[in-house]
């Protein structure tokens, strides 16, 4: 665990215990006043009763907190949480009554020396039960409302990070596609086609226009269907083939049932772009890029293989770093990215996503 996480957890624990001590101390003042003025406990026993009241409140609610954390109740939707909270309030209220009655019985029999029936003392519920119900309801509702607020803040923070990251990737992607080398080669290829093959030149202009338009506007969407993403990839490959000609080929394999599944926008294109930049472009003979998208139980596996080797620039590129951050924010621990050399001359970039991807992720 990092130092920042340790400090954060320590701060949360300190806040929790501060609220516990302060809250139960304030609540217990009323009962201290009551036993002092009505029951004549005396200063020492009033103070002792006051401390025990605080201890009972903290003990019961802390036990509930530990149990709720163990069962991960704070991760439940509201309806399922209510089914657990209401019985918990009743159980804690009953325990609150029993502990207070035992405390009361011990005082009057052991300290005051009066004769009291234990079972009679134990079943004395009014008004202690109502007090217990009120106190436990307030505590449990405040506890879960606090965690609900914290979860909403964390979600808002993550969404803001994802939005910022998406914008940054948009700029990175646009910058890469608008670099002079890319445009120079594309425009030169188009220029040479204008006289030789006007229809092909028009097609190339359309491809370049669509690609740049996608860079500007598709990045506003966090997710895109695999079908639409592959359409962008095919346009990108077709445009790059003007430069590479027979040196570049793309073989795609797609499970048809995955066409409408949502994935991070331009994630496959980034892998294809890296495969060309760090693989095909470095080889005189070029090579074949193999794209495979399959379903494996509850996961989608996107694999891009190309000839070449992993270099420090390849593995530490801004594009791949941003992709990893997007996956972490978007899917938490349910998604992953791997870049490996599967043999001496082949590099594989692989994205693993949960199958249940949708716009609400």
Automatic annotation (TrEMBL):
InterPro entries in the cross-refs: Bact_2-comp_sensor_kinase, HATPase_C_sf, Sig_transdc_His_kin_internal
Coiled coil: none
Gene3D superfamilies associated with the record: Histidine kinase-like ATPase, C-terminal domain (3.30.565.10)
Keywords: Kinase, Membrane, Transferase, Transmembrane, Transmembrane helix
Residue stretches spanning the membrane: 15-36, 42-60, 81-99, 119-142
Keyword Transmembrane helix applies: yes
Highest taxon of source: Bacteria
Keyword Transferase listed: yes
Gene Ontology MF term list: kinase activity
Alphabetical list of Pfam families matching this protein: His_kinase (PF06580)
Name of the protein: Histidine kinase
Organism expressing this protein natively: Gaetbulibacter jejuensis
């Amino acid at each position: 665990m990092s130092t920042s996480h340790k400090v954060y957890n320590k701060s949360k624990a300190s806040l929790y215990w501060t609220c516990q001590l302060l809250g139960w101390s304030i609540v217990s003042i009323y009962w201290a006043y009551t036993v002092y003025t009505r029951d004549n406990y005396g200063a020492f026993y009033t103070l002792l009763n006051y401390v025990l009241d605080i201890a009972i409140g903290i003990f019961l609610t802390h036990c509930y907190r530990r149990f709720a954390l163990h069962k991960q109740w704070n991760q439940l939707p509201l309806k399922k949480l209510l089914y657990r909270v209401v019985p918990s309030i009743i159980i804690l209220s009953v325990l609150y009554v029993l502990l207070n009655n035992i405390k009361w019985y011990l005082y009057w029999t052991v300290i005051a020396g009066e004769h009291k029936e234990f079972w009679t003392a134990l079943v004395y519920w009014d008004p202690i039960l109502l007090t217990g119900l009120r106190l436990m309801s307030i505590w449990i509702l405040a506890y879960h409302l606090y965690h609900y607020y914290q979860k909403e803040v964390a979600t808002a923070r993550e969404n803001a990070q994802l939005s910022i990251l998406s914008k940054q990737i948009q700029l990175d992607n646009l910058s890469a596609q608008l670099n002079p080398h890319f445009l120079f080669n594309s425009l030169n290829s188009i220029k040479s086609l204008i006289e030789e093959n006007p229809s092909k030149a028009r097609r190339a202009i359309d491809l370049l226009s669509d690609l740049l338009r996608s860079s500007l506007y598709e990045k506003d969407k966090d997710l895109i269907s695999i079908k639409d993403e592959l359409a962008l990839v095919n346009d990108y490959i077709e445009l790059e083939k003007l430069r590479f000609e027979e040196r570049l080929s793309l073989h795609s394999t797609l499970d048809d049932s995955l066409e409408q599944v949502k994935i991070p926008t331009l994630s496959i294109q980034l892998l294809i772009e890296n495969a060309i930049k760090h693989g095909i472009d470095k080889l005189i003979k070029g090579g074949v890029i193999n794209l495979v998208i399959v379903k494996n139980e509850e996961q989608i596996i996107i694999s891009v293989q190309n000839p070449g080797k992993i270099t420090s620039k390849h593995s530490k590129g801004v594009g791949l770093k941003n992709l990893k951050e997007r996956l972490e924010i978007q899917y938490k621990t349910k998604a992953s990215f791997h870049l490996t050399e599967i043999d001496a001359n082949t590099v594989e970039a692989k994205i693993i996503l949960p199958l249940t991807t949708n716009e609400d992720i």
